[in-house]
Write a structure and sequence with these properties.
The chain is mainly alpha-helical and 330 residues long. The chain is 73% helix and 0% strand. It is built from 15 helices and no strands. α7 packs parallel to α11, α11 runs antiparallel to α12 and α13 packs antiparallel against α14. The N and C termini lie far apart (96 Å).
Amino acid sequence: MKSAVLLMLLASAASLSAQTPSESASPAAEAPKLTEAQVNSVLDQLKVLEADILAKRGSNLSSVLAKLSSAISSDQAAIKFYTDCDVLVNSERKEASKTEARQRAEQIEKNMERKSKAGAGADDEEGDNGIALRLGLRYLMLTLEAHESKDDDFKKMVPKLQSYIQDLVASAPKLHGRAFGMINRACGANSPVVQAYQLDRYLNREHWSRDPSNIGGMYQATLFHVAKTEAKDSLPTIWDSRINNEGVFRKEQMSEPEYLLWLQNELPALRWERASYLYENGPSVINAMADMLKVIKEFPAHADAPKWVNELRLKVNESAAVPPSAAAGS
């Protein structure tokens, strides 16, 4: 009996496996077809909804930008704004008691204002939190503006970003220790401000750096990109500005031995990067190769010098009117 049942099961399985896909699978449902009236109705409703969404979105962001603009007007305003956001995110939304929320706010303000009250002669190891916080909030404003900028208007962000970089570099002597980290804490994804106003979805924008203290990243993501499409002839000058600003900022951030090593190792590499970039994207290939040769001559002991020589030799051979091997044969 058992063998008979087994044979029946095997026969059934073989029959199922022999079926074609069209026999075993149900036919796919056809996509629904809308009438012209239905299409027009849905599209009209979407148009109205889109206008309403954009209006509310613009209103909400305008409100946040206004609050940020007010917050960066002074150290005290920045500290209070940041503290209020921190209390909202870490106390009120977590249903802490009013006493705990008040204590948290007082502790944050006390810690952040300690440096300001200490006076100009105080130890600079921890930097100035007020200045750092204002810079971080200011960069958050720029990031929100950049996110909402249309491609045609994005170039308007350039002078604003350049102004920010100038102020960042000028403030470098006061951005030591905890203060330096405060720039990023003010506008990063985990910032109480970002969380309080739910801004995390507005922080990513093509051709915009998320890092408010990375000068090179700002140039690479935005300033070089815009110049390459709008004013290629300005690229050499913009690259010089990038290197100079980086050097001034590093000098204030590093100890003297560290800065000397930066001059010895990183500055030559930056100059080579400049020349290579201008070779690919700049207004003059000849000038770019001349810059490459100059870097090799000035820094022959650099660890990358052999690689630089090979790269420049390859570029020169590629640019030669007559290939070197052909010239030698003649």
